[in-house]
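For the sake of clarity, the format in which proteins appear in this thesis is described at this point. The record quoted next illustrates the convention:

___
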Amino acid sequence: MSVLKSLKLSDAKPAAQSKTPAERAREKLIGNLALQKDLAKATIEGRVFVPPKRWVSRTNEDGVRVRVETPRRVRKCWFEDGNRTTHFVMQYGGRPLEIAKGKTAIEVGPLANLPTLIDGLIEAVRAGEFDTALSNAAAERGRLLNRNGRPKAN
């Protein structure tokens, strides 16, 4: 008996998993927070953090397109004030994310506490606690990208 005859075949196909804009915004913010956590750990350990940027295609000498890894630039989203206290600013779309009215920075204390704080922030983003701030940031970004000053219609 052949293997093909012993299989139970069907015409089932995977359903498309479309994500909502809020889910895409959460994933984007979580990815940025994970990069900041890795950068903070590397800074605490005293090593250089250079994550690779993948899928850059170039043409080699034979005229064939190849994929190349290049170093990716990651800006740190924390700073120290005059008292050597570290403050963390979450970024979304290249701009500070307003957590509360007029508040964009989170006081961390010493730099060694930053990875733990970022873990907590990632859990809060997954729970949807930043959805309002993310939607406000997306609307502001839409206003900035639209020429007539009104947000783009979805």
